[in-house]
Amino acid sequence: MSNYDVVVIGAGPGGYIAAIRASQLGFKVACIDAWKNKEGKASLGGTCLNVGCIPSKALLQSSENFAQLQHDFADHGITAEGVKLDVAKMLSRKDKIVDKLTGGIGFLFKKNKIDSLHGVGRLVKRENDLWQVEVKDGEKVDVVSATRVIIATGSSPRQIPGAEVDNVNILDNEGALSLAAVPAKLGVIGAGVIGLEMGSVWNRLGSQVTILEAAPAFLGAADEAVAKEATKLFTKQGLSINTGVKINSVNSTETGVTVAYVDSKGNEVTAAFDKLIVAVGRVPNTNGLGAEVVGLQLNDRGQVEINDHWETNLPNVYAIGDVVRGPMLAHKAMDEGVALAEQLAGQKPHLDFNTIPWVIYTNPEIAWVGKTEQQLKADGVEYKVGKSVFGANGRALGLGMADGFVKVLACAKTDRVLGVHLIGPFASEMIAEAVMAMEFRAASEDIARIVHAHPSLSEVFHEAALSVDKRALHA
């Protein structure tokens, strides 16, 4: 039986990063993962690299290029005839990117002398201060021992009763990334990140997309001003967004899917789609982990219970990422993996959950960090607001991407930045400056005094910071 200092169960963003950092710190590490690609080969990287963050961004870029060629390039004096869409080639490009990055993790494991064990990992028992962990790959079963175990098993798509995913007509994120042809009519249940991004992809490629959201408000987690702007822009692009919807039934046939629902006004509606994407959130992967055998404590949401140091109720068993509390974000899991590995090595890492950025890769992109205006009002915090639009920015106008704005929220008493909210071009990149500012406890005045390159999109952030104290220069 092989013995390790650290065994990580799961090779998604949290797991593989935890394994690498632990190895860098001198631990003998193994990482267990059961993911297989469509060829049936082991593929590291979890949902994010295989059927999540990475392939979705590849398709978003492909679809955006297609839409720009059709609708936007004419403004630049560029016209084209006979434009054709090759879905198979688009998917092949996406798959090549996935293969390159998942293979890259395998290379990093070899470089850092991490043993990659393919199979389902399960806690068996603790014996002589060592955890016995089963690795099951089909009929093959091995057992390894570990001083410490890190659970990083991630999450899976939440299912809707009566709308079981078959990835033929009713799709989850994996099926939505692999459609062989553009459906004429596409339904999406759920207006979260996955629903909006996948809806955007196929809308740009020609689908008539209808989004059905149970919540009464669109993008309720985002700042209200951003949500309002997003609703306007996405509707203009052709997305039909319906909130306050109650799904009554979903019926899949050989020819498509029929959804019966009640709209926000109480009207009964029946809609027919060629394909239906179900994107109503995700649930933690704890089935098969052996929790009931070893007494691992789970909460009522199925998450592994941990304290502020990622410790479970079991000695030397830890958990990170989607399988524990907090936002189900790859970058949150990755930083937890680093922090936990360093903690195991006796270091004092720091991770501020208040400065974790959120991004939605639509067009325009949406990103935010910190508190929303509605949260500050609910908390009774006195605040100031600064806002600047991309429509007055030379770089944005030159790019032909002048929709949206940057909004800065600062404490009325101390001027400390409490939240930054963006909807606009490359918001996913621009949010990093806001995260750094908040990590360094910057005031809006600090940002206003920093020289920003001209012409650049970052000037809009600068202008919003100036606007906090009503001294904007270009508004």
UniProtKB/TrEMBL annotation:
GO terms for molecular function: dihydrolipoyl dehydrogenase (NADH) activity. It is an enzyme of class 1 (oxidoreductase). Its cofactor is FAD. Its EC number is 1.8.1.4. This is Dihydrolipoyl dehydrogenase. Binds 1 FAD per subunit. It is found in: Cytoplasm. The keyword Thylakoid does not apply. Residues 4-337 form the FAD/NAD(P)-binding domain. Belongs to the class-I pyridine nucleotide-disulfide oxidoreductase family. Coiled coil: none annotated. Residues 356-465 form the Pyridine nucleotide-disulphide oxidoreductase dimerisation domain. It catalyses: N(6)-[(R)-dihydrolipoyl]-L-lysyl-[protein] + NAD(+) = N(6)-[(R)-lipoyl]-L-lysyl-[protein] + NADH + H(+). The active site is a redox-active disulfide bond. It comes from the Bacteria. It comes from Leeia speluncae. Pfam families: Pyr_redox_2 (PF07992), Pyr_redox_dim (PF02852). The keyword Protein biosynthesis does not apply. Gene3D superfamilies: 3.30.390.30, FAD/NAD(P)-binding domain (3.50.50.60). PANTHER family: DIHYDROLIPOYL DEHYDROGENASE (PTHR22912:SF224), DISULFIDE OXIDOREDUCTASE (PTHR22912). InterPro entries: Class-I_Pyr_Nuc-Dis_Oxidored (IPR050151), FAD/NAD-bd_sf (IPR036188), FAD/NAD-binding_dom (IPR023753), FAD/NAD-linked_Rdtase_dimer_sf (IPR016156), Lipoamide_DH (IPR006258), Pyr_nuc-diS_OxRdtase (IPR001100), Pyr_nucl-diS_OxRdtase_dimer (IPR004099), Pyr_OxRdtase_I_AS (IPR012999). Keywords: Cytoplasm, Disulfide bond, FAD, Flavoprotein, NAD, Oxidoreductase, Redox-active center.
